[in-house]
Amino acid sequence: MRTENLVIVVMMAVVFLGVNRAMTIQESYKLWNEIDQVERENTVLREEFGRLQLEESMLVTEALLDQETREQLRMVVPDENAVVYVIETNTDVQYVGLDNKINAQ
């Protein structure tokens, strides 16, 4: 009787260890898949970050170039009274400006 109990206990231990091993393998596959997914997302984010850094450097360069060009050419924003709007219709050209002298022409 004692050996039979020992055999039953050993068999239960083997079954328990087998189930535990299967659950451990399943968990490791699940974690491996999660790691793989996170690594793919990380790659995508790194690529996007690189594109954004390049875009930022281009914007800074364009802004500095614009500023330097305006300074060298002594460009200024025109006065609001100097702006003339031209509105075309089918047959007539009508000048709309802030200055009455322009409208008289």
How would you describe what is shown here?
The protein is built from two helices and two strands, in the order H-E-E-H. The protein is rod-shaped, with a radius of gyration of 39 Å. Strand 1 and strand 2 form a beta hairpin. By secondary structure, it is mainly alpha-helical. The protein has one domain. The relative contact order is 0.04. Strands 1-2 form a two-stranded antiparallel ribbon. The mean pLDDT is 83.
Q: Would you summarize the structure shown here?
A:
By secondary structure, the protein is mainly alpha-helical. Helix content is about 70%, strand content about 10%.
Considering the chains and any ligands shown, give keywords for the structure.
105 residues, mainly alpha, two-stranded antiparallel ribbon, 2 helices
According to DSSP, the number of beta strands is 2
Basic shape: rod-shaped
SS content category: mainly alpha
Amino- and carboxy-terminal Cα gap: 123 Å
How is the largest sheet built, in terms of strand order? 1-2
* Overall average residue pLDDT: 83
Helix content: over 70%
Radius of gyration: 39 Å
Our count of helices gives: 2
Q: How is the main sheet built?
A: 2 strands, antiparallel
Keywords: Cell cycle, Cell division, Cell membrane, Membrane, Transmembrane, Transmembrane helix
Subcellular location: Cell membrane
Pfam families: FtsL
InterPro entries: Cell_div_FtsL
